[in-house]
Amino acid sequence: MAQFCYYRPYFNPQLESLIEHINPPRIRIDNDAFKDCTLIKFDSANKHGILLEVVQILTDLDLVISKSYISSDGGWFMDVFHVTDQFGNKITDEALIQYIQKAVCTKRNSKEAQVNPERNLRPRHVVVMEHTAIEMTVTDQRGLLSEVSAVLADLGCHISAGVAWTHNHRGACIIYVDDQETTRPITDQKRLCHIQEQLQTVVDARNKNGEKQNVRLTTPATTQTHTERRLHQLMLADGGGVGGGGGEGVECERHHGMTCECTHVSIQSCKEKGYTVVNIRCKDRPKLLFDTVCTLTDLQYAVFHAAISSNSSIAAQEYFVRRKDGCTVETENERRRVRQCLIAAVERRGTQGLKLDITAKNRTGLLSDVTRVFREHGLSVTRAEIGTKDETAIGTFYVTDSSGRRISKEMVEAIEKEIGGTTTTVAVQHEKPLSKSIDYKNTNGIDDKPSLLSLGSLLWSRLERISGNFGHIRS
């Protein structure tokens, strides 16, 4: 099938920098337009990845984006976000507002120093590379995190922070370590090679089906890295965490309609506008917008227009995209890959099992002890996030019982006693995994238009009004 490409005129990179210098990014924060949310309006010269940068800043601060309207035609980017904090309140903290404004403007100029916010405003998922980073993509097996952390403790590595995700029988994790004695990053190449060999031996010993297991160590860098985006990239490159949907999706839609919480992804051509239209409907959750935008960006697609909304715990996202080279998505293989990657991005952060928040005194080997206790009680860690603050270690773990039993209050109390810290059960209700993933297509391989409320008309009708709200930018 032929591909349609829409090329832009060539722009000199120096001219692009000049345009950004003359018309720098601008943010307006409006608390008067709506009673129940803060309106954040952003506009600047357009560049690939700018949408992700803005969404990343907002989600790193644990802000909830309930609606968004995006337009980036004509070399200019305009975006409107409806935002609240985690408790549903407007954003009124002046320090937070100033940080958002400064962070976005600094992001757009790579020559400027990184924003250095107050400690209580530093986003949790932006890790300053003061540590040695260990990246792993492995087969998901119960107790593997426990074994890896035990090896690191034996090798004199103190774990400062880490995040681990699992999906579709694959797992990825990033662990930041320091030398136990000096509390400084590990930079000696011989020692790094030895650590990598030991970890590779552990994960390979667990491998029974010949699946690939990758372990990589990186020395500290001078820039910051976004841990969760890197996790998405690791799982995308690994391929094992990507899963697709089945033909049962259309039947599911008929029976359950808009109350269905499965992940639905459809892709259609909009030839009259020169776009590919990507529709996503799924259960709403925090950071959903970041996960989908991150995936589209890393797949090298540019978002020209989008409309995002959530209603009754169901989120609807509609993107008008082209590939970075200007082409639309026309082949069925490419459509299938985009669908599968988006479904995986939505579901790999899906909450499964019991959420445990654990606070304990920071010490070397703590993660090994915590995960060992989980393993001894027959529990599997499906997702984890750990960090340290002064002398305190804080961790969030999602755990499930591999035998299918419910995790009782007595078991939680026993875990707390063995760990020797404070274990807070935040979500006692066991959540069901996202069992169905839907991609719409008929037997001929052509996408059927889903019976969803399309956001396209809403998007186009509001773009003109949104654009007018920004006014003109002066140097």
TrEMBL record:
PROSITE patterns xref list: ACT
Gene Ontology molecular function: amino acid binding
Protein's UniProt keywords contain ATP-binding: no
Alphabetic keyword roster: Repeat
Residue stretches making up the ACT domain: 39-118, 133-213, 355-433
Spans through the membrane: none
Gene3D superfamilies reported for this sequence: 3.30.70.260
InterPro entries named in the record: ACR1-12, ACT-like_dom_sf, ACT_dom
Function, in words: Binds amino acids.
The protein's name in its UniProt record: ACT domain-containing protein ACR
Organism: Spinacia oleracea
Lineage, broadest ranks: Eukaryota, Viridiplantae, Streptophyta, Embryophyta, Tracheophyta
